[in-house]
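Kindly draft a polypeptide, keeping tokens residue-aligned:

***
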Amino acid sequence: MDNMQVMEQQGLSDRWLSVDEVCTYLGVSRDTVYRWIHSRRMPGRSVGRLWKFKKGEVDRWVEAGGAA
């Protein structure tokens, strides 16, 4: 069972995800996520020095071709 399945079973799928969790979820590197944040306007919020993401927003961004 992967991290996202565990989170969904625990009812945590609507919480904010970290960069590492988004990397695991999408199967990409940290460098790729940071590149998408800065160049492709990946939906996320800066919280101090950290980036946080809503799973649903990331899903919609990917489905709209944002990660292509």
